[in-house]
Design a protein that fits this description.
heterodimer; A: 113 residues; 7-stranded mixed beta sheet; 4-stranded antiparallel beta sheet; 11 strands; 0% helix; globular; B: 113 residues; mainly beta; 6-stranded mixed beta sheet
Chain lengths: 113, 113
C-alpha cells in the first residue's frame, strides 16, 4: 500500500537531548513537509522540501533541522535549542506542479520533560 | 502572502441536521483550496479540493464546498450530519508557485445525538 509512515507514534525525551523523527513515503512524491500541531491550534509549517538535497524554512524553523538525502525520506531533528518541543508532529508529502494536495502520515507525539 | 480564516472555532449540530463550516481566504494568485478532516490523535485526511475547475466541489462522506471568488470564501457543507463527522476540520490554501500551504486554525465539529 502506498502511503506515509512516521515513527515512532509516541516519543519521550529528557530536556536537552536532540531527537530525530522519521518520515518515509512510497508515493513517489517530490515534495515533503513537516508541521507542528499544538492543542487547539492549526498546523504550523516547520520545514518543507520540493526536491532532493534542497529544503526551505517554514514559519517556525528555529530549533529544528532537516535533511533530504533521499526522495522517500525527510527526517526532522528537534534540537535542544527548541524551547517548547512537546507537540504533535505531522509529516506530509505531495506531488509538485499540480494542486499540491498533501497526504499526511499518522503523526508522532513528542513529550519532552 | 496568503492567509486563511476559519470563522468558527466550534460548531455544534444535531445528528441529521445540516453542517456549515465557514472559511475565508486571501491569496495573491488563483489559489488551490482544500478541506481536511482530523480525528483525535490522527493524521489529516483530504475531504475535497478546489483547483480552478468547477466551483462546486464534491468530496468524500457527502461533503461539498463552493468556491466564491467574489466573497473569497470556500465554505464546507453537508446536508445531514452523522455522529462519525465529529472531528476537527481544517481549511487550507496553497500557493501554486512555491507549494507552500497555509492552514486555518481549525473548526471543531460536535454532533449531538
Amino acid at each position: 500500500d502506498g502511503g506515509i509512515t512516521q515513527s515512532p507514534k509516541y516519543l519521550f525525551r529528557k530536556e536537552g537531548q536532540n531527537v530525530t523523527l522519521s518520515c518515509e513515503q512510497n508515493l513517489n512524491h517530490d515534495a515533503m513537509y513537516w508541521y507542528r500541531q499544538d492543542p487547539g491550534q492549526g498546523l504550523r509549517l516547520i520545514y518543507y522540501s520540493q526536491i532532493v538535497n534542497d529544503f526551505q524554512k517554514g514559519d517556525i524553523a528555529e530549533g529544528y533541522s532537516v535533511s533530504r538525502e533521499k526522495k522517500e525520506s525527510f527526517p526532522l531533528t528537534v534540537t535542544s535549542a527548541q524551547k517548547n518541543p512537546t507537540a504533535f508532529y505531522l509529516c506530509a508529502s505531495s506531488s509538485t506542479g499540480t494542486s499540491y494536495e498533501q497526504y499526511f502520515g499518522p503523526g508522532t507525539r513528542l513529550t519532552v520533560t | 502572502a496568503q492567509s486563511v480564516t476559519q470563522l468558527d472555532s466550534h460548531v455544534s449540530v444535531s445528528e441529521g441536521t445540516p453542517v456549515l463550516l465557514r472559511c475565508n481566504y486571501s491569496s495573491s494568485y488563483s489559489p488551490s483550496l482544500f478541506w481536511y478532516v482530523q480525528h483525535p490523535n490522527k493524521g489529516l485526511q483530504l475531504l475535497l479540493k478546489y483547483t480552478s475547475a468547477a466551483t462546486l466541489v464534491k468530496g468524500i462522506n457527502g461533503f461539498e464546498a463552493e468556491f466564491k471568488k467574489s466573497e473569497t470564501s470556500f465554505h464546507l457543507t453537508k446536508p445531514s450530519a452523522h455522529m462519525s463527522d465529529a472531528a476537527e476540520y481544517f481549511c487550507v490554501v496553497s500557493d501554486w508557485g512555491t507549494g507552500k500551504s497555509t492552514f486555518g486554525d481549525g473548526t471543531t465539529l460536535t454532533v449531538k445525538p
